Amino acid sequence: MAKDRSSLHPDDLNRDPISGAPGAHPVGTGVGATGGAVAGAAVGAAGGPVGAAAGLVVGAVVGGLGGKAVAERVNPTAERSYWENAYDREPYYETGRSYDDYGPAYELGWSSRNAAVDEFASVEPSLAREWEARRGASSLDWERARPASHAAWERADRLYFREEDMAIPGGDPLSNDDVVDVLNDLLENTRDGEYGFRTCAEEVETGRLKEVFASRAAQCQASASQLVELVITFGGKPADGGTATGAMHRGWVHVKGALGANSELSILEECERGEDAAVARYRKALKQALPAGVRQILQTQAQGAQRNHDQIRDLRNAARAAKARS
């Protein structure tokens, strides 16, 4: 028998925070406000601090309304239930802490995935700032809360967004020039990855990590070679960008700092951020109306990037657990 909605917990009704009507996920308006505020601040920043503040207000109002459209994609009741049962089995869990410490971080993660237009690494600075307002009774600082937020982000991404990211979009096919632009963006990103992984392979001492990083660098180089051939096929000139200069903008910005910290855990954490950027750029590319042959190659590369991301994440988790035990 269907459950009587009048007997449900208020959270289960998923009331619209603006109208009060049941059926809307309560994170929707808040998430839209967060994303809208960030975008508004970027626009308003041209006018200096006052312009940025005005942008935050206007962006939050518009984003709050727009957020309702995407909120239905993530079920906050289901996500909260999942993490309440799983949080103490996660590799970043600290013995003795309760769900109240991690819960706000999970909510920040899954809700922010709704509003994001780029990878986790790109919005993390804004999430770190927002954490102070969203942490509630949590005693975690952002560094300890970040893994939980990232885990919730990844779960929401996998459950609610991954299928759409890989779907073939409709609309008119891209022109050759536009295809070249998409390919060159990925080409620069793969060169950044090759540079980052080779740098890490030279610095770490563990033989296993040296092999992993060297293998990833070689895979990035092979992907770059494929992309160069595609760019030429479509009448374009392969981009010169990438390596050290371009890395400052595409996820590898902190590698040098991590190396200076002389910590393999720090290096793995920064490599994961770089892999976040790579996965996100492939997803962005695959949302374009690409020629079938190009799409097939990019999907194969994207799947490889996702597998490599997951391997780096698992190594990071193992290193974090080992550090906690020491």
- How many strand units? 0
By secondary-structure content and strand pairing, the structural class works out as mainly alpha
Bin the helical content: over 70%
Distance between the termini: 53 Å
Segments where pLDDT lies below 50 for 5+ residues? 1-71, 243-251
Strand content: under 5%
3D structure, described in words:
By secondary structure, this protein is mainly α. The chain is 73% helix and 0% strand. The longest helix has 34 residues, at 292-325. Residues 1-71 and 243-251 have low confidence and may be disordered.
Q: Secondary-structure map with pairings?
A:
Layout: H1 10-13, H2 27-44, H3 48-71, H4 76-86, H5 99-115, H6 120-134, H7 142-166, H8 176-203, H9 207-233, H10 243-247, H11 255-260, H12 264-286, H13 292-325
Gist?
This protein is 73% helix and 0% strand. It is built from 13 helices and no strands.
Keywords, please?
326 residues; mainly alpha; 13 helices; 73% helix
